[in-house]
Structures are given as C-alpha cells and as structure tokens.
Design a protein that fits this description.
There is one protein chain. It is built from 7 helices and no strands. With about 190 residues, the chain is mainly alpha-helical. It is globular, with a radius of gyration of 18 Å.
Length: about 190
C-alpha cells in the first residue's frame, strides 16, 4: 500500500511539474488516502515493519516541498507563471516555513518530555487540523484551481504557511515561558 502511494506521490510531482494540475491533484489525493490507510492497515494485520514505518514517514516528511516546487514550475506550462524573483520568494516562504514548523515541533518534543506541540491545549489540537501541511495546502490549491488560478493558490499557500509558522512560534514561546516560571507544561489530553 505504501509503495503504491509512493508511486502516486511521484506521479503527482510529475503532473504538477508539467502543469497538469487536475490530474496531479487526483494522484495526490489518491496518495493521501493510501497514506492515511497504510500504517493503520499494517498495524491491524500485524504486517507492520520498521522499514515500512521509515518508508512511510520518510515520504510524508520529504515530499511536500517537492510538490510545491513542482507546482510552481508547472505554472509556466499552465500559462500563469509567477515572475521569477517573486516565484523564488513564494517558494522560500513555503519551503522555509515548512522546515521551520517541523523544527518547532521537534523542539517542543525535546523540551517538553516528548509532548507534541499539537496536544498542549485544545486550540493546538484544533489548529493541527488546518495548519499549513500537505492536506490543507492541497485544499487551498484545489480551490484556487477551480477558479483557474493555480498561481494565486500557490501565493495563498505561502501566506497560510507564514500564518501557521507564526502561530507555532508563538505557542512554543508561550510553552517555554511557562516552563521557565516553573509551571508544568502538560497535554490537555492528560487532564
């Protein structure tokens, strides 16, 4: 299941690269469904493995920046290219914001005894559902494509990535400040 998903992930990259966005979105959504199912299926059937876990999580972690780069590249073939300097800025915000958010998540786990940043308070758990990651970004891009504006969709993803990065940075600062005052930082799910 993970291998089929990986093939669809690569196919989505290629289709985005050549400006075939609707087909790319179909392949991407197929991958996203399989990505949701594969780990659960492996655990339920007792067929999980260390390699499968690494393969699945590696794909999850690595592919999003490549998809957004391919989306930007495909804009020329679609007929809506961004000006080169602007395109570079948009990609830097998306990719840099993605990497920075992942770093913030890692810092939270390191600083707060393995606790994920998205379980600190109910707000954090709710925000995780919409934070600038693959699925919400794909929804933004698909909505923009409905209006024939994949270029605008990519710019909106950059803005949403920036908003999400600020949110996570503020939450990490708030958690760090509480800990510095001697207040235990714990998940709302443990209450």
């Amino acid at each position: 299941v993970t291998l089929v998903g990986a093939v669809l992930c690569l196919l989505a990259f290629w289709l985005f690269w050549i400006g075939q966005y609707w087909l790319g979105i179909a392949a991407g959504f197929g991958f996203m469904v399989l990505d949701t199912v594969d780990g659960k299926l492996a655990r339920c059937t007792g067929a999980s493995s260390k390699w499968g876990n690494v393969f699945d999580h590696g794909i999850d972690l690595v592919h999003p920046p490549f998809w957004w780069w391919a989306w930007e590249h495909g804009l020329a073939a679609y007929g809506r290219p961004l000006e080169p300097v602007y395109a570079t800025m948009v990609l830097w915000v998306i990719v840099g914001g993605y990497v920075a958010q992942r770093a913030i998540e890692g810092l939270a786990i390191q600083r707060f005894a393995g606790m994920e940043i998205h379980v600190w308070r109910p707000l954090d758990s709710k925000f995780r559902l919409i934070t600038a990651r693959r699925n919400p970004n794909m929804a933004i891009l698909a909505a923009a494509l409905l209006f024939g504006r994949p270029d605008t969709g990519l710019v909106l993803v950059a803005w949403w990535t920036l908003v999400s990065l600020i949110f996570h940075a503020v939450r990490l600062a708030q958690m760090t400040e509480r800990q510095a005052r001697g207040v235990k930082v714990a998940s709302w799910l443990d209450a």
